[in-house]
Amino acid sequence: MEIMKEKNNDLQKAIKWNEETFMKTIFQYSGQLSGLTAENSMLNTKLEKEKQSKDRLETEVESYHSRLTTATYGHDQSIMLLHTLRSNLKDNVVLSQQLSKAESQFKSLEIELYHTRDALREKIVVLECVQRGLSQALVFKEGN
């Protein structure tokens, strides 16, 4: 009987020790889970901001594409007008003035075209950086 009591006491001690160890482990994992949940929320917020930024940049790029198309069309129209005026020019002062005006418009449109093209290139670079950041954030999120 004494052996049984001793074994019972040993078992109760082992159970108590296991319970304490289990509680410590639960506490540690709860802390880790809380930290990971907070980090996940932060990453989700960051991801949403990156998506919004990407959407905004894509809209901006579309706008630049449209402006570039308009500028290119205007540029082409100016070139055609310039050729027409040059072919009809015969010492006529009025036609000479129109040609000068068309050349000025052509240069303005050409400058606008270069500015628009440069701005578009910059936006594309920014968009690519944002997309890389978004991809890295997704990879990081999936990795955790």
Automatic annotation (TrEMBL):
Alphabetical list of InterPro entries matching this protein: Ankyrin_repeat_domain, CC144C-like_CC_dom
Signal peptide segment: none
UniProt KW Protease keyword: no
Keywords: Coiled coil
Protein name listed in UniProt: Ankyrin repeat domain-containing protein 26
One matching Pfam family: CCDC144C
Coiled coil regions in record: 40-67
Domain CCDC144C-like coiled-coil: 2-81, 87-138
